[in-house]
Amino acid sequence: MDIKSVFANNEKWIASKLATDKHYFEKLASGQKPEFLYIGCSDSRVTAEDLMGIQPGEAFVHRNIANLVNNVDLNVMSVLNYSVRHLKVNHIVVCGHYNCGGVKAAMQPADMGILNPWLRNIRDVYRLHRDELNAIKDEEKRYERLVELNVQEQCVNLIKTAAVQEANKERGLKVHGWVFDIHTGKLIDLKIDFDKILKDIVEIYNLYPAAE
Ligand code: CO
Q: Helices 115-128 and 139-159 meet at what angle, rounded to 10?
């Protein structure tokens, strides 16, 4: 893929959209009402729209290294608040993936420079689940389990926020944890128990009293 073909591809894409609907771009420009907020990894192989089979306008998307939801990251918190409070998405998905370089890096004893504070969020997930992870002798399996537990903990981080607690109370917004299996293309639903996590969490992280 060279840079020139991007523009040629863009022209082809415009033509294909207009061939099915000549008002396609007028409709696209008129506004957005996505049903999902998708938070995924920046990994070039894990493209949100392709793997869900969705079209422009259907998901608000945030991607970062290892799909982290960090409470002091102004970027992810802005995306969360805008999409939940203004666009009124009804589902938030955290989608991790096997073979995640970010998760792998967090399992290495190495100084990664500016990435250290970012990856430390994953090391914290490891610490929280140390007994379970250390009991897995097969390193590959342990790595895959950390990918899953990282998704689970990012879902917990979302449920800690006032925006999510409020939107759940008001319109039943739910948080979902998925893993993309890069070996098969399959999307795996980790079946995060939203209500149970919310119930556990509001004891300490209750920012919206009516959420109890
Ligand atoms: Co990744």
A: 100
Distance from the CA of 196 to the center of ligand 1, in angstroms? 27
Please tell me whether residues 154 and 180 are part of one structural domain.
Answer: yes
CATH number, domain at 202? 3.40.1050.10
CA of 67 to the centre of ligand 1 (A): 7
Task: Mark whether 2 and 59 lie in a shared domain.
Answer: no
Beta bridge partners of 96: 179
Q: Number of folded domains in the chain?
A: 2
Question: Residue 48's domain spans which residues?
Answer: 32-211
Whether 15 and 85 map to the same domain: the answer is: no
Lowest-pLDDT range of 72-76, 127-131, 195-199: 195-199
Mean pLDDT in residue range 63-85: 98
Q: In the beta sheet, which residues pair with residue 189?
A: 178
> Does the pLDDT value for residue 203 go beyond 90?
no
Mark whether 17 and 115 lie in a shared domain. no
Instruction: Return the pLDDT at 23.
Output: 97
Positions marked catalytic: 41, 43, 45, 97, 100
Distance 54 CA to ligand 1 centre (A): 21
CA of 46 to the centre of ligand 1 (A): 8
| Claim: this prediction has a pTM higher than 0.85 | yes
pLDDT above 70 for 21: yes
14, 68 contact by CB (below 8 A) = no
Give the residue from 26, 5, 24, 4 showing the smallest Cα distance to 16. Answer: 24
